[in-house]
Amino acid sequence: MITPENLDEQESRIPQxxxxxxxxxxxEEIPQLKTENGQTPAITLLKTNLPExxxxxxxxxxxxxxxxxxxxxxxxxxxxxxxxxxxxEQCVTAFIGPSGCGKSTFLRTMNRMNDLIPGARVDxxxxxxxxxxxxxxxxxxxxxxxxxxxFQKSNPFPKSIYENVAYGVRINNLARSRKSLxxxxxxxxRGAALWDEVKDSLHxxxxxxxxxxxxxxxxxxxxxxxxxxxxxxxxxxxxxPISTAKIEELIFELKKRYTIVIVTHNxxxxxxxxxxxxxxxxxxxxEFGDTRRIFTNxxxxxxxxxxxxxxx
Amino acid sequence: MPAGLGAxxxxxxxxxxxxxxxxxxxxxxxxxxPEIVALSAPPSLLSSSWTRRIRMGDLVARGITFLxxxxxLVITVALAWELYKGSVPSIKEFGWKFITQKTxxxxxxxxxxxxxxxxxxxxxxxxxxxxxxxxxxAAIFLAELAPRAISSALTFVIELLAAVPSVIYGLLxxxxxxxxxxxxxxxxxxxxxxxxPIFSGPNYGVGVLTAGIVLAVMIVPFxxxxxxxxxxxxxxxQREASMALGATHWETTWHVAxxxxxxxxFGSIFLALARALGETMAVTMVIGNTPQISASLFAPxxxxxxxxxxxxTEATGxxxxxxxxxxxxxxxxxxxxxxxxxxxxxxSTVRKQGAAA
Lengths: 312, 357
Ligand SMILES: Nc1ncnc2c1ncn2[C@@H]1O[C@H](COP(=O)(O)OP(=O)(O)O)[C@@H](O)[C@H]1O
Ligand SMILES: [Mg+2]
Description:
The complex is a heterodimer of chains A (312) and B (357). With 312 residues, chain A is of the alpha/beta class. Chain A has 12 helices and 10 strands.
């Protein structure tokens, strides 16, 4: 089983998993990594001796989501078994595994989408920023504002492009005027790398867009309410390679500001976009750790078999 | 499970032409038939008897379905032509005055139909005003809020109601609604809203308002049943997309499911309207059958369908008969126009807000 302790062990090749204030004083800040509204992120980002080619912020990021002995049941059927994991802020965490192994189910425990399924039951806890989202006083509506979700099949509303993006903003009363709503729509569409393609047809139907554009519109729709976490369930599985590349590029951009959790059945994709990778098998999290290590030096036989294509 | 939701949907009360607009556009595109593979097959395959048989089957099927479709068109045209032919004497005699004139006098053979037009429209409008909110509200309850068991039980009853013959509703009107309106309903409306001209004047129980209420009762099952089905056919992905943005269940129903289902719901309303416009029996039993235009909804009236049914057997003389046929023609044209407007409305909202549903 993977616990917070042995997660660190697994990461032992990477120096400084934990935030160390002594180290912090010596290191220099990386100035460009400020959030859009000018606040510095909760953790000061440090330049350390990183493994080459990796984003600097991954190593020292705080834990955003963690689960403790999470079990999940569809009626009698257990879909997740004793999942313990820590997902770090401003990183991309990917989950791979054969289909039906519970990846989507796990993703959907993080925004309580499974609440909508009759007979579904959760046991154990999911903490976001240290707070249990399944606690009695926790509000799932409030939670879903903070945890956006992108679905496997793009599902824009049969409304205009503008109205799709504005939907969440309107529902949550986040814009005070038409003008500020316009601004949010433009900013978000730019953020989702869609603005240039749709700026002249904002009030046309979203269903006239191509599949890839529709999926980016769904991303824009999720971003418009400024979530902290973005859950993506096989967001590119129905798309052609070019659209997929665009989505992946977008994920790289987005991780500067969001914690991204992505489910994918495409291992190249997991290897390309993620900082951490978890491997699921029949409801269990078999292995979790640094993406490069999982793909180059997995510690479990099952993981190795899966990534080398021996099953799944 | 999502597939299951889709498969539940059967457009039971639908006219074939409403059905098309229920299919989301992307699906329509997706279900375009694939190119016929045989075309690119080698010549030896093409000439095999097997492919020929397939092709013959195609031709026969196409021919039969085409004839079926054609028959609808033929019937419509024949209907219009017969109605027109029958009303020629009346059209010649009265011209446009037939539409604008109030008198309906079989003795002096002076006919005008505005009172019937008015009666038909006003009863249908009253019926819609009452039935649409109730129908859509009930559909939302059944599709979104009620527990499964209650929902299916109620739906069963509602579909029974839709199949009750209209004369039964007429009896219900005569024995229950008319006395009720005379003794309680009308009086309390007057007490509360008597200052409005529409609720002034004597109240006999029979009248335009009572007819509108009976019509509303008759059409509400259609609206509920169809609207419920289209709401149930809204894909789960649509609701999840909304819920994932922090919308409540109700917000999701109202802003997403209703929007997705809107053309089907419009369809149910217009189907109900078409039934209200043409309803004869139940209306004639409670409306009072008096050709007049009155501001008061308590006043008796007369509808186009009712006058045709009541007077056709006793119509003596060609002109009288022809006048009745012309009313039929007007009813036909009016229904066509309203249907066209409905279509236009659906088309324009769908185009404005996005093309699904
Ligand atoms: N709504 C549901 N009701 C019952 N069982 C479900 C439901 N959704 C998923 N499952 C079951 O839970 C298991 C995990 O499914 P899922 O999380 O969708 O897997 P993955 O996303 O990895 O393909 C599967 O065995 C699936 O059959
Ligand atoms: Mg899945």
